[in-house]
Write a structure and sequence with these properties.
- The complex is a heterodimer of chains A (about 300) and B (about 900).
- Chain A has about 300 residues and is of the alpha+beta class.
- Chain A has a single domain (about 50-305), classed as outer membrane lipoprotein receptor (LolB), chain A (Clam).
- Chain A has helices at about 10-20, 35-45, 145, 160-165, 195-200, 285, 290-300; strands spanning about 55-65, 70-75, 80-90, 95-105, 110-115, 125-130, 135-140, 175-185, 185-195, 205-215, 220-225, 230-245, 245-255, 260-270.
- In chain A, strands 1, 2, 3, 4, 5, 6, 7, 8, 9, 10, 11, 12, 13 and 14 form a 14-stranded antiparallel sheet that branches.
- In chain A, helix 1 (about 10-20) crosses helix 2.
- In chain B, a hairpin with a 2-residue loop joins strand 3 and strand 4.
- In chain B, the strands form 3 sheets. A 4-stranded antiparallel sheet of chain B has the order 2-5-1-6, with helices on both faces. In chain B, strands 8-9-7-10 form a 4-stranded antiparallel sheet, with helices on both faces.
- At the A-B interface, strand 1, strand 2, strand 7, strand 8 and helix 5 of A face strand 4, helix 22, helix 23 and helix 24 of B.
Chain lengths: ~300, ~900
């Protein structure tokens, strides 16, 4: 209540989400890898090709129920359509600039966010928020030192949280290989990740179990548990396709099994290595609609 | 009816002699049924959850469940602290509070050894801290800043707490500029601060079966062609919550207390925990104290049984009656798969009272005849002949009284009433059918000769007897010095009842001399108490349930005076339409209602908070101007202002507004007051709500705005219980009176018995009304008990008198006989139970103390009614109880001359 405006929505995370489901072409069917090594491979694969990307995604959130054994939305789903453009920049391309614009619902159309994140930990990340109905831009300041204390935030008010999107930080967890076998027709290893104590206090989860395709190093399913080892959430990865030489799940569904709500994130369009000018990723992209539309039109053309 | 009573008299007189030949069979049946019930009792379940007070379909509980479903638990812990240096913003205060906050926030990072050595907590206690969802204190709270079009939310107090005074002053003046933090985190004078702990109590979902290792690869309901399309008929799995058990709160409070009560903390702070967790933990402490007092009650009962009867059997056998009856009740409930509630404690008290009374009446009568020179068998038969019918009558009336509780329809009371009635019945069955057999083996005034003969006859019996003698000798080793000491100070004379018979002998003449005065005093007292009873305020106030020595009252006062207040309620706004809450008209109504009730009820309401406040705050921030601290006119603007809030912590957003933005709530912080005041207050607020939201019903025909929250529910419950109890009490009085008229076989006798019956109960309520002591739920529960016990003695008295009158056709003989025989038993039971109940007045928990105080008062007054008022009535009105040819000469004064 006292801190509604604390969460910088670093949209880099959105892309990483899809990266969770990425894998490389040279499939690696070696199942003798340790749990940690498997997770390293998944992380490595997911980091490929995040440069200069344009995406359009549809986020569908609803309370779900079952009909004839199939999961369905039990109420009118809330749908958000978001376009996002991102480039890597700075020294060694380690900084990121991105802009995200909401297309739907109508009440939120035109809300935009511009994010600059810097590799240099002494430099604060910057995020600008634009509310179209008020015509105002505000910079949201979150100090890096505070950042790690910031609670996990929901992405666009859906069941996805920033913690669900995080990648890397492998040293923060211990990994255990629970079982190997066939799962949905693939060779899969089930790996349990447990946060180390310093990580646990910041995490919403006590542990997670990932079903990793050991041929393609793609995560097919993740089960999240609370700190008392009760299952609370799960992620299902679907619609696996090859895009720009990269395999990805175009449909990610997060199930909050406590509140019976789900969010389905579907990649409507995606393109990597598109030509995005740095001068587009400025505040003008938020406030100047004509300027923005011209750029986006071009990007949409490039995307599949 | 007269024939029936005479027949029953004869029947009861014959019971002992008919049972003795089958004594082994009787014992065997008793033993087997005890084993059966004992086995059942081993599965005894005590349900202490809050929900047991409501029937499952209660709309109020449904509303609360729905609320928790939507917004999570409303049950947190608020620890207010007083800084002994007078400043919560001093370096020391902030440093120590930061330490507590860190410990609570990161409890899982502290090793088991540290928990054990530093805090004395075992891992299972520490585990309970997992119920903490969020800890907020001055040391970690963030403030919103809006400077040069930059929004930030830095900590109010930096992680490294400054020691420079000017820096600390800057922090405290920065805090003063945050209206949302004042009263919530610190008091206006900076003397008090608070740690707010949000928990999941009351909203802990029942854990669904987790996938075990084997099923890791058995695929579930997922299919790759999933699309998030809608199907109205999809079945949503209902979320079930774990029952709200006090057992959850106890270790939690223990862990919290261990952290706050470290010596370095208590040297600098006084802590005042507020909230359900603190209250329940306190209630548990009082329960433990109550258990000790109950033990004290049993000791006193034992002591009196021993001194009055001078016989070990008189001590052991009544307690066996109590023990078996309670075992049968608990065993029966367990076999029926019914969980007991805390009210079982009252059932136990009732069974103690009834069991003791039943046995004492039989044994007192038995002793009376033995001392009169009768042999064991004859004395026993006569005792049962005299007491059987009255015991049957008291059993019926008490059972009827307790069963009338079932009329309240509240599930907890239905069970309490019926199981108590069963307990009373078990005590009756024991007294009539098992006691004569047991007395056959072991009875007071056992002749030594008989003992020796039996000694020779039967080895086992000899062994038992030997053991008994040995243990008696062992006991008397300790008891003798006490007895001789008490003899010196005249205590023995007092408690051994040597004075009783001479005193009883003088009663008839005394009553005759003062009969009109006695009648006027009692009747006058009755009228005054009736008036007093009409003045009784039915009011349950959480704080007033405790005596002044318990710090909770102090804590509530401090929090009500300096901080956010100790109570809270929520007004749920349900538009029944998606995005309804984003409608500026709805938000404006919420805003206006908040202003209205904050102004009108400033005595109760400290502050209110809702989504409307959030929208106004965000509006002002985004427009960088206080002029815009308003609800915007367009729904799109509202929706965009809420965008950031939507995107922040979903748990927090969900705690304030539902996922589809159809429902939200206004939370209202309240000062503590009694249920009576609050009931009116809730009614008034509901009127304001209706007035404010009526205009919206055209746009939102299904709009529902109502008050809920566990505090509001508890207040409503207290009021409901009071009303229901009052109703059941009235039913009990009517039922008992009717039964009396019926069994006494005469309207005259019935009417005459009602007034002495009603006096003890009226006295208790009347005194409360006259002394301005409010009647709370706990005190009300004692009422059936008081009536039950007081009525019992009167019934014994009246029915004995009536039987004697039927036999002797002489009022004088009947009255003398009744006073001498029943007077003794009634005095014994009164002394035993009156003193026993008096023990409870020492409880810190006023609910129990009142039960003890008024209970023992009622019991003693009932004795005076029986010994003085009833004889006076007989002497004045000379009722013949349907008998003919009665000698109504009641001239005692001349006779005694």
């Amino acid at each position: 209540m006292n801190k509604p405006i604390t969460n910088d929505l670093n949209l880099k995370l959105l892309l990483v989400t899809f990266c969770v489901a990425m894998f490389s072409l040279n499939a690696f069917a070696d199942t003798d890898l340790s749990a940690r090594e498997i997770m390293e491979r998944v992380d490595e694969e997911s980091r490929k090709s995040t440069d200069s990307a344009f995406t359009r995604m549809k986020l569908t959130t609803c309370k779900y129920g079952k009909k004839d054994g199939k999961i369905k939305c039990a109420e009118k789903p809330r749908i958000k359509l978001v376009e996002n453009a991102q480039i890597n920049t700075g020294i060694d391309d380690k900084d990121t600039k991105s802009v995200a614009i909401i297309l739907e619902p109508a009440s939120e159309r035109g809300i935009g966010m511009l994010s600059y994140s810097y590799d240099d930990s002494d430099r604060d990340n910057e995020t600008w928020l634009y509310l179209s109905a008020l015509g105002k831009v505000k910079r949201i300041s979150v100090r890096n030192s505070d950042d790690e204390e910031t609670e996990s935030a929901s992405i666009f008010g859906t069941e996805m949280t920033t913690e669900d999107q995080e990648s890397g930080k492998l040293d923060d967890y211990t990994y255990e290989l629970l079982e190997q076998g066939k799962f949905r027709g693939r060779e899969v290893a089930v790996i349990e990740s447990t946060p180390k104590p310093h990580r646990l206090s910041k995490s919403s989860y006590g542990k997670t179990q990932s079903w990793v395709d050991t041929e393609r190093f793609i995560t097919l399913k993740v089960q999240m548990f609370d700190k008392n080892s009760n299952p609370i959430k799960k992620l299902e990865v679907g619609k696996v396709e090859k895009i720009n030489d990269v395999w990805m799940g175009r449909s990610l569904t997060f199930f909050n099994t406590v509140s019976n709500r789900l969010t389905n994130m579907r990649l409507e369009a995606i393109n990597f290595g598109v030509d995005i000018q740095e001068d587009f990723l400025t505040q003008r992209a938020l406030t100047d609609q004509a300027f923005r539309e011209k750029y986006l039109k071009d990007l949409r053309k490039q995307a599949q | 009816m007269k024939n029936l009573l005479l027949y029953l008299n004869k029947y009861f007189a014959k019971v002992p002699s008919q049972l003795i030949p089958y004594r082994k069979a009787v014992l065997l049946v008793a033993l087997l049924s005890t084993i059966f019930m004992g086995y059942g009792a081993s599965r005894f379940v005590l349900d202490t959850s809050f929900d047991v007070w409501f029937s499952e379909s209660d709309p109020a509980i449904e509303a609360l469940d729905e609320f928790r479903d939507q917004f999570g638990s409303d049950d947190g812990l608020f620890i207010v602290y007083e800084a002994k240096d007078g400043d919560v913003f001093s370096n020391k205060s902030l440093t120590l509070i930061s330490e507590i906050t860190e410990t609570l926030d990161n409890y899982e990072q502290i090793s088991n050894d540290v928990w054990l050595n530093q805090y004395g907590l075992t891992p299972d206690i520490v585990e309970s801290l997992s119920h903490i969802k969020r800890v907020q204190s001055l040391s970690n709270i963030r403030i919103q800043k809006n400077e040069d079009d930059v929004l930030s939310s830095p900590r109010l107090v930096p992680k490294i707490i400054p020691s420079e005074q000017n820096q600390l002053s800057a922090i405290s003046s920065e805090a003063d500029d945050q209206p949302s933090l004042e009263l919530f985190m610190f008091s206006k004078d900076h003397r008090y601060g608070a740690i707010s702990i949000k928990t999941d109590f009351g909203a802990i979902p029942v854990v669904q079966e987790s996938d075990d290792e084997l099923s890791l690869f058995s695929d579930d309901d997922w299919s790759d062609d999933f699309d998030a399309s809608m199907d109205d008929s999809a079945v949503i799995q209902k979320i079930e919550y774990q029952p709200d058990e006090p057992a959850l709160y106890i270790p939690f409070m223990k862990a919290i207390t261990a952290i706050t009560e470290q010596s370095k903390m208590t040297e600098h702070f006084n802590f005042y925990p507020i909230g359900n967790s603190a209250m329940i933990s306190l209630a548990m402490d009082t329960l433990i104290q109550a258990a000790f007092l109950l033990v004290g009650m049993v000791v006193i009962i034992n002591l009196l049984l021993w001194t009055l009867f001078r016989s070990a059997s008189a001590v052991v056998l009544p307690q066996l009656a109590i023990g078996l009856s309670i075992l049968f009740v608990i065993g029966g409930l367990s076999w029926l798969n019914l969980a007991s509630t805390t009210l079982i404690a009252l059932t136990v008290m009732l069974v103690i009272a009834v069991g003791v009374a039943d046995c004492v009446h039989v044994m007192s009568s038995y002793l009376f005849f033995r001392r009169d020179g009768k042999e064991h068998d004859e004395a026993l038969s006569k005792a049962y002949g005299k007491t059987g019918v009255p015991i049957l009558l008291t059993t019926i009336t008490t059972m009827a009284g307790m069963s009338s509780l079932a009329a309240t329809g509240m599930p907890m009371f239905v069970q309490f009433g019926l199981s108590s009635a069963a307990g009373v019945f078990f005590a009756f069955a024991y007294t009539i059918y098992l006691l004569p057999v047991l007395l056959n083996y072991w009875h007071p005034m056992q002749t030594k000769k008989a003992g020796n003969q039996e000694n020779n006859k039967n080895g086992i019996k000899a062994l038992a007897l030997n053991f008994k003698l040995k243990s008696l000798r062992f006991l008397s080793f300790f008891a003798k010095p006490l007895l001789s000491a008490s003899k010196k100070i005249g205590l023995t004379w007092l408690v051994s009842a040597e004075w009783l018979q001479p005193l009883l002998d003088r009663i008839p003449a005394f009553v005759e001399r003062f009969r009109y005065l006695i009648a006027i005093i009692f009747f006058g007292g009755f009228i005054v108490c009736l008036y007093g009873a009409t003045q009784v305020k039915i009011d349950s106030n959480l704080v007033e349930l405790y005596s002044d020595d318990v710090p909770i009252g102090q804590a509530y006062d401090i929090v009500d005076d300096n901080m956010m207040g100790t109570g809270n309620m929520v007004i749920v706004v349900d538009t029944a339409r998606s995005d309804g809450i984003m409608d500026p008209a709805v938000l404006s109504s919420m805003d206006r209602l908040q202003n209205k009730i904050e102004d009108s009820y400033s005595d109760y309401i400290i502050r209110t908070n809702s989504l409307a406040d959030l929208v106004k705050d965000t509006h002002a921030i985004m427009q960088s101007s206080e002029e815009y601290r308003t609800i915007p006119n367009s729904q799109i603007a509202v929706s965009q202002l809420l965008y950031l809030f939507n995107s922040s912590n979903p748990e927090e957003r969900r705690a304030l507004v539902s996922d589809d933005f159809s429902k939200s709530h206004i939370s209202v912080q309240l000062r503590n007051a009694g249920s009576e005041e609050y009931k009116d207050f809730f009614d008034e607020i509901q009127k304001d709500i209706n007035y404010e939201f009526n205009t919206l019903t055209e746009i939102y025909p299904e709009l529902k705005v109502q008050i809920t929250g566990s505090f509001a529910l508890m207040m409503r419950l207290a009021d409901d219980i009071s009303k229901n109890q009052f109703k059941s009490l009235a039913i009990a009085a009517v039922v008992i009176s009717l039964l009396m008229m019926l069994t006494l076989g005469s309207l005259q006798a019935g009417v005459m018995s009602i007034v002495p019956n009603l006096i003890p109960a009226t006295l208790a309520f009347g005194l409360m009304g006259l002394l301005g002591i409010s009647l709370d739920t706990d005190t009300l529960m004692i009422a059936p008990l008081i009536i039950g016990i007081a009525v019992d003695d009167t019934i014994h008295f009246i029915s004995h008198y009536r039987m004697s009158l039927a036999q002797n056709h002489n009022m004088k003989i009947a009255l003398v006989e009744t006073i001498k025989e029943v007077g003794q038993a009634v005095t014994f039971t009164t002394l035993i139970l009156g003193c026993g109940f008096f023990m409870l007045t020492f409880s810190d928990y006023l609910g129990l103390a009142k039960i003890g105080g008024f209970g023992s008062l009622a019991i003693f007054v009932a004795l005076l009614c029986d010994l003085l008022f009833f004889p006076a009535l007989i002497m004045i009105f000379k009722p013949k109880f349907g008998q003919k040819d009665v000698d109504d000469n009641l001239n005692f004064i001349e006779a005694s001359k």
